[in-house]
Amino acid sequence: xxxxxxxxxxxxxxxxxxxxxxxxxxxxxxxxxxxxxxxxxxxxxxxxxxxxxxxxxxxxxxxxxxxxxxxxxxxxxxxxxxxxxxxxxxxxxxxxx
Length: 97
Description:
This protein is an alpha+beta fold and 97 residues long. It has a single domain, classed as Alpha-Beta Plaits (2-Layer Sandwich). Helix content is 31%, strand content 12%. A two-stranded antiparallel sheet has the order 1-2. The longest helix is centred in the middle third of the chain and has 13 residues, at 51-63. The chain is globular. The mean pLDDT is 87.
């Protein structure tokens, strides 16, 4: 989805690379992803005004010809088989603004 989601109306997008993501005793990002020694954890998130906006924007992104090319598995800089996603509803949100 990424920056294309913002182009179609998302409020915010972020990509982040882990710089302090240790393995846990029971579970962790490295364990869940079966991280190899030469790999890092990356996370992304997109903020939408509402679930309805999310559904509309995600559909528009999936139909966007420019973004379809970027989402081709051969163009992805990661192993999409180990990618997972979900939708979350904010229960507490703070802003410094």
